Structures are given as C-alpha cells and as structure tokens.
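User: quick one, fold this
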Amino acid sequence: MYNILIVDDHPIVRAGMKSILNAEKGMFTLDEAQNARETMLKVSSNNYDLILLDLTLPDNQGLNLLKDIKTIKKQTPILILSVHPEEQYGIRCLKAGASGFISKESAPFELIKAIRKIQAGGRYISPTLAEIMATQIFDKDGPRHLRLSDREFDIFIGIAQGLKVTELAEKFKLSPKTIYTYREHVFTKMGFNSNVELARYANSNDLIV
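Assistant:
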C-alpha cells in the first residue's frame, strides 16, 4: 500500500482527490490535513510515501511549507497540486525539492500518471512545464521574473493582483516596511518604474490566475 497525505484547506478538493485515488482499488491508503500546522504535526509523527501539497494555505503561503517539510523529511516525495499555473510556481517548486507540479485543473487527467512516475523514482513534469523549461534553456537571459527570490516573487504576484501594501503585509505576516523593501527589490531587479508596468508584464507572461 502506498501511503499518501493530502494537504488542502478545502474539504471539497480533498474529497475530489480521495475520489480519484480510491478509484484505484486497494492501491493507496489516504490521510489528510487542512493547514500547515496540522501538516507538520502529521509529517513529524508519520512516514508517508507521498505528500500531495497545495501551495496556498491560510497559515502558510507560497513555498514555505514545502521547504519546512523537506527540512524534517528530506526523502519524502512531494507532488504540488495547485490552483496556480505552472508559469508561476512550477520551476520554483522543483528547485525547492518537489517531485512534480500539476494544476488542480489538470488533476483529474494527470494525478495518477504523476503518482506512478514518482513511485518509479522519477519526477513528474507536465507538458506545459516541460515547454516552459525548454524555452528557458534556449533563452540565455531567461524571463525577468526568474531573477527574483521566492519571497520577492510572492510579493511581485501580489502587486500584480492589485493587493495593497497593508494586504500583502497581512497575507505574508510581514511589516509594511518589509513589503516596501521587497517591492523595491522587485522593481530594481526587473527594471520597473510603476505597478502598471509590473502588472502589464505579469499579464503578458500569463503569471496571473
């Protein structure tokens, strides 16, 4: 039996994932967690063969939880299952140690295939993500947003979505002053002079959900 932990804050999503997995009769044993705190408690006290992880949880945003899990269970494969498109976080997740990344939209068609690939010791890269990676290989400079750190990228996406500094501070549990500092780093690294330029870039590169 292949022991899987499903991490998502939406009960309907967890139920949907369980339905897909239970259709594979007798292949998987399933556990679930609804937030980062519960996830870390379960990961600390159990050995899972795979963790299906949503990036966006109410008590932990972005790549933080992925990195936290890897600090205590380095060898446990993690498959990211996210509402965010591959263009946003796919490559960053792989670099942070994930064994694969699929969008929730494609989960009904790709989930079992992705798990089988990871079971065999590989990484699952969707056709969309493979195309993005191939483009970057042949583009020496690469997209400007890849110059950003993970936290800078989180702030970049938040600004592009129209969030105010106070909203970003609350979302990422940082001070407004720190948000302004990250915003300045984003503008410097990417060569922007305004939020309008930033939003235009994000939209033209399909980085907004």
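User: anything notable?
Assistant: The radius of gyration is 18 Å.
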